Amino acid sequence: MLSKIKTTYIYNMLQNKKILIAGLANKHSIAAGIARAMHAQGAELAFTYQSERLKGNVEKIASELGSNILIECDVASDDSINSMYQTLSNDWKSFDGFVHSIGYAPANELEGNFVDAATREGFQIAHDISSYSFTAMAKGAKSMLNPNSALLTLTYLGAVQSLPNYNVMGLAKASLEANTRFLAAAMGPDGIRVNAISAGPIKTLAASGVKNFRKMLTSYANRAPLRRVVTTMEVGNVAAFLCSDLASGVTGEITYVDAGFNTAAMSMEEYSD
């Protein structure tokens, strides 16, 4: 089924736009799909990487997409975020937005009963890295953003529905979705839009940390109206639109790209059985 999905580009939506991609981990990640889609739509890209361990992965994709701007950034540190923007300003005096594809919770909290697994430290880490970092990046970028800029983050269905083993990450994503709305309200008067994409499950390095993720993929495909999961490129295409001027009237929104799963209580096959 997935091999039959074709992407047709009819408009350089992001021509002359400069977009920073934060959180790209490897070539299979959602952030990589977003970067490829944005590049295909004419965007000039810059990338952050968390540590030297991940730098090589980011370098390969950046090179593939014609970018030589790679900057180390640890979003747990305000100093690191500010230093990243200072370094970015050597190449870009201003830019048109960023993609925040960052989330983390301790692995031992992404398994089993939520109450049993939860800890105060894990709760704080998950919210700091997965949600507050979006605000911190927005604060740091504000003085460099061009008029009509757009900020985008990635959330998940676990923000609004309880899912097995997602645990504290669901709470952090709920915070991130509220964060999106409050940032949209705060930055809207300056002409800056803020949105989120809630993508369906995709086999990525980050998702592999959730126990029984393969079983979740099968369940999604069976229940989603399109009877499949989505691809990183499909998420990327929506991301490109949301960061383009074609979405100039869209802000504070959570846009689902999940083959319709969030709309379906059960499939017709489940009902028939």
Write the layout of secondary structure elements.
Elements: E1 18-22, H1 30-40, E2 44-49, H2 52-64, E3 70-72, H3 78-88, E4 95-100, H4 114-117, H5 120-141, E5 145-155, H6 167-187, E6 193-199, H7 213-223, H8 232-242, E7 254-257, H9 268-272
Parallel strand pairs: 1-2, 1-4, 2-3, 4-5, 5-6, 6-7
Helix pairs in contact: 1-8, 3-5, 5-6
Fill in the keyword field for this structure.
9 helices; 15% strand; 7 strands; alpha/beta; 273 residues; globular; Rossmann fold
Largest sheet properties: 7 strands, parallel
Rg from alpha-carbon coordinates: 18 Å
Coarse shape: globular
What's the end-to-end separation, in Å? Answer: 24 Å
Individual helix count: 9
Main CATH class? Alpha Beta
Which structural class is indicated by helix and strand composition? alpha/beta
Number of domains: 1
Report the CATH superfamily: NAD(P)-binding Rossmann-like Domain
Give the strand order of the largest sheet, numbering strands 1, 2, ... along the chain.
3-2-1-4-5-6-7
At the third CATH level, what is the topology name? Rossmann fold
What is the string of helix and strand elements?
EHEHEHEHHEHEHHEH
CATH level-two architecture: 3-Layer(aba) Sandwich
How much helical structure, as a percent, in the residues? 25-40%
Count of strand segments: 7
Please report which band the strand proportion falls in: under 5%, 5-15%, 15-25%, 25-35%, 35-45% or over 45%.
15-25%
Averaged pLDDT: 92
Low confidence ranges: none
